[in-house]
Design a protein that fits this description.
The complex is a heterodimer.
Chain A: H1 2-18, E1 23-28, H2 35-46, E2 65-74, E3 77-85, H3 95-100, H4 105-125, E4 131-137, H5 145-156, E5 161-166, H6 175-181, E6 186-189, H7 198-208
Parallel strand pairs in A: 1-3, 1-4, 4-5, 5-6
Antiparallel strand pairs in A: 2-3
Chain B: E1 8-12, H1 22-33, E2 37-42, H2 47-60, E3 68-73, H3 82-95, E4 101-106, E5 110-116, E6 119-124, H4 131-139
Parallel strand pairs in B: 1-2
Antiparallel strand pairs in B: 2-4, 3-4, 5-6
Helix pairs in contact in B: 1-2
Classes of the chains: A alpha/beta, B alpha+beta.
């Protein structure tokens, strides 16, 4: 009972506070799902500049990155937010995996160390988010524990979630499988790289933000 | 023929962790995992404890310990309809976190946990002899 009252009070305060500040929109998900590619797509569309670098080697984003005051519009609707791109959340980081992708041993160990710190920071930032987009690789199995843990934690914090099934430009992508894995959430299939489905994504973003 | 390997599966009943604090639970589980054991935990951790477990794992990763694989299995993950949701909520109230099963193991042994709503597959591999263990063996 106490928990319910506490949740209610938190929500009321959060809602009151929300009207006075920019919404923090977080990009969360496992590594290499395309969070930074989507962040770049949003930033290029609305600010005309990219946010961060992308790579086929996992854990390219190892620090939380913020782009402030992004204003997006659609007809009469407008939404203003600070975009927070977070490092991919993982339960394991093996420096030898980076070596297999061509990095030297020294670089790999450094990357692994930074990546572990990045995961910790991403989790710490969860509490600060107002809205979250969970970016999943649409070609991969959506039933991974990391995906379930991230989404479960956001639900426990009452943070609205939109799930993006990215990489629909690839044949293996299966948006329906992602929808089946998370039936309680809105799922939008996009290709952050090529822009496919991006208009639907912005529409879903307005709906999630209550616009 | 594939080379044989020894796997240690340790069952941890829920009553072994229920009196512990969140930090205590995480410490206990990670301690077992770092002994190259695959833990079968009765029930599941709280949602916040799952993220704390990931955080604690990240803090301990080094050249020897590469992290963990986790799989949590319980029947009410995807609520089919409202009746099922009500039933699951009621069972949850009665049983707490005792329902389901959590598998946690070292990433050096569990390569992948594949799952769909009704079954899971655990792909394991023989652990590489760690420097720590090799040293201990030489001393003997």
């Amino acid at each position: 009972m106490l928990q319910i009252i506490q949740k209610f009070i938190n929500k009321v305060f959060k809602d009151l506070f929300k009207t006075r500040k920019h919404i923090k929109l977080g990009l969360y998900g496992p590594p290499n799902g395309g969070k930074t590619t989507l962040a770049n797509r949003i930033c290029v569309d609305w600010l005309g500049e990219e946010m961060g670098s992308v790579s086929h080697v996992e854990h390219e984003t190892r620090e939380v990155q913020i782009k402030e005051q992004i204003n997006i519009t659609s007809g009469k609707k407008a939404l203003s937010f600070n975009l927070v791109d977070t490092p991919g959340i993982a339960t394991k980081i093996d420096y030898e995996d980076f070596m297999k992708k061509g990095l030297s041993e020294k670089e790999s160990k450094k990357r692994a160390k930074e990546a572990t710190k990045g995961v910790i920071d991403a989790i710490k930032w969860l509490d600060d988010m107002d809205l979250v987009i969970v970016v999943l690789d649409g070609t991969k199995d959506p039933y991974s524990q990391v995906n379930i843990t991230i989404i479960g934690n956001l639900a426990a914090r009452d943070i609205p979630v939109l799930i993006v099934a990215n990489k629909v430009d690839l044949k293996k992508a299966d948006v329906k499988k992602v929808e089946a894995a998370f039936p309680q959430y809105d799922v939008v299939g996009i290709s952050a790289k090529y822009g496919q489905g991006i208009d639907k994504f912005y529409e879903a973003l307005f709906v999630m933000a209550g616009k | 023929m594939a080379p044989s390997m020894d796997l240690t599966l340790q069952f941890v009943p829920h009553n072994e962790i229920e009196s512990l604090s969140s930090l205590g639970r995480i410490k206990k589980l990670l301690h077992l995992v770092k002994e190259d054991k695959i833990i079968l935990l009765e029930g599941r951790l709280k949602r916040e404890e799952e993220t704390e477990l990931i955080k604690a794992t990240m803090e301990q990763i080094d050249e020897e310990f590469r992290g963990v694989e986790i799989g949590v299995f319980y029947s009410d993950q995807n609520y089919g309809d409202i009746l099922k949701k009500i039933r699951a909520t009621f069972v949850n109230m009665l049983m707490g976190d005792r329902i389901g099963l959590t598998v946690i193991g070292p990433a050096s042994i569990i390569k992948e946990i594949k799952r769909d709503p009704s079954r899971f597959q655990l792909l394991a591999q023989a652990p590489k002899a760690s420097k720590r263990k090799a040293k201990a063996k030489r001393r003997r």
